[in-house]
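Reviewer comment 2.1 asked that we show a complete input and output for one of the modelled complexes. We chose the coenzyme A case, as it is the one discussed in the main text.
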Amino acid sequence: MAQLASKYTIVELVAEDIDAIIEIEKVAFIAPWPKEVFEMEFKNNRAYNIVCVDNTGILVGYCLSWLIYDEIHILKVAVHESCQNQGLGRSMIEDTLEYFIAKGANHAILEVRLDNHSAIGLYEKLGFESIRIRKNYYRETNEDALVMMLDIEENFRTEAKK
Ligand SMILES: CC(C)(COP(=O)(O)OP(=O)(O)OC[C@H]1O[C@@H](n2cnc3c(N)ncnc32)[C@H](O)[C@@H]1OP(=O)(O)O)[C@@H](O)C(=O)NCCC(=O)NCCS
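Response of the prediction step:
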């Protein structure tokens, strides 16, 4: 996993984290998920849900994902505005990939808004490649999604491999 500043730790999500996640979610996304969706994901046994906390216990980011057969689906990743560009998003995705690689995953897939340059930049850095456009994927704005895929064997780039 990318070197995480000692101030931060990545741990699995617990039910008590959901309110803090919602606060970040409301700022980070045009169509934030309601609390019930996070509660459902928390109970989903094919999910791996993690949060990043600082050394005072404040939740500063989260990443939700599933494993379906050998394919990792990154559902959501977000970092509090005040903590972005410090490698936290990258560390959470790397942690997720490594968790599922140990369970036999060989590729990962996600959707991202075409104009979300920071997220696309992060995914490319990890080795994800654009594979197609899903038209009108984001219903609330009729925006298209870019579908990105990572072939883990071929392209997964950790800090060590960079
Ligand atoms: C996308 C997001 C999770 C990235 O988290 P982050 O912790 O700021 O990202 P990191 O610091 O780990 O960035 C890692 C890499 O991403 C790339 N990146 C980050 N911001 C970028 C930008 N504005 N433009 C291009 N690339 C960018 C860089 O390549 C960076 O690597 P570097 O530090 O070696 O240059 C964060 O911006 C966020 O929460 N955005 C709002 C929610 C969102 O859009 N989530 C993704 C859609 S599901």
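Residues 28, 76-79, 84-90, 112, 116-119, 121-122, 125 surround coenzyme A (CB under 6 Å). We note this here for comparison with the apo prediction described in Section 3.2.
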